[in-house]
Amino acid sequence: MSNHQKRDFLFLHIRDLPYFRALIRAVESEYYQDLDLPSPTLDVGCGDGHFAQLTFDRKLDVGLDPWHRPIHEAGTRNVYDLLVEADAAKSPFPDGHFASAISNSVLEHIPHVEAVLTEAGRVLRAGAPFVFCVPNHQFLANLSVARFFDKVGMKFLARTYRTFFNNISRHYHCDPPDVWEKRLDLAGFELVRWWHYFSPQALRVLEWGHYFGLPSLIVHVLTRKWNIAPTRWNLYFTERFLRKYASAEPVDDGAYTFYIARKR
Question: In this predicted model, what pLDDT tens digit does every residue of 13-50 receive, in sequence order?
């Protein structure tokens, strides 16, 4: 059995993150295990490097992110050969420098996403895979509070709640595959494969986790840690509750989409 098959991504993520973020990241970590990502690899929007540290068996070649504090935290994890603090629409690399690229739950947060995709196309070699995941058009539609307001005919409150939750999630793009396919095509990519994941039930856990997770936020502000005791015994009930939602199986009504594209 390979190392990735032995890894319990759910526990690894809930040990370090708020449980609702750990749930979605654990599912996404699974998807990378069977992907061929030849070196050099670019991580577009690497953040603090936590996801790469848990997901990959090797160091990635370059992590790129515009935010000062997270990228300096990534430097303490020793998971990238090189870290670059820069806008992903203006990367300091020559044409065709990279053999693969990833962007995990990042592109939805970037207003100028088309420019970022164009730049990714510029720095990737012909035939290079570009792998990313984002929330889709079913994310807002399946929010439980909004669905309740829909059901009782309070459409204005449903729209208001969806706008509120989108804002606190810092989402600029929750789009279906055909929209991403057009963006990719304009940036010089062919969309090879995609699938939806993260069921409406799992989305409810994530949604309500934003509210039930407030004590963890207080702990984080005071200690810079999300969990004071990241042990199996302390996280036993959390892990047991989340386990049934942490499925990596594709689902038609999933709130997120995983994409595999290739540079033309």
Answer: 999 999 999 999 999 999 999 999 999 999 999 999 99
* φ/ψ of residue 130, rounded to 5: -125, 115
CA distance 160 to 242: 29
As to burial, measured by CB atoms within 10 angstroms (0-12 exposed, 13-18 middle, 19+ buried), residue 153 is exposed
Q: Per the structure block, which two tokens stand in for 44?
A: 């577009």
CA dist 178 and 40 (Å) reads 29
Peptide bond before 40: cis, by omega within 30 degrees of 0?
yes
* pTM > 0.90: yes
- Residues 173 and 113 sit within 8 Å (Cβ to Cβ): yes
96: left (phi over 0), alpha (psi -120 to 50) or beta: left
Q: Which of 102, 167, 113, 110 has the alpha carbon at shortest distance from 140?
A: 167
Q: How many CB atoms lie within 10 A of CB 248?
A: 15
Judge contact between 44 and 104, C-beta under 8 A: no
In the block, tokens 């909004």 appear at 146
Ramachandran bin of 127, using left for φ above 0, alpha for ψ from -120 to 50, beta for the remaining angles: left
Report helix, strand or coil for 142: coil
**How far apart (Å, rounded) are the C-alpha atoms in residues 178 and 94?**
30
First-residue to last-residue Cα distance in the chain? 35
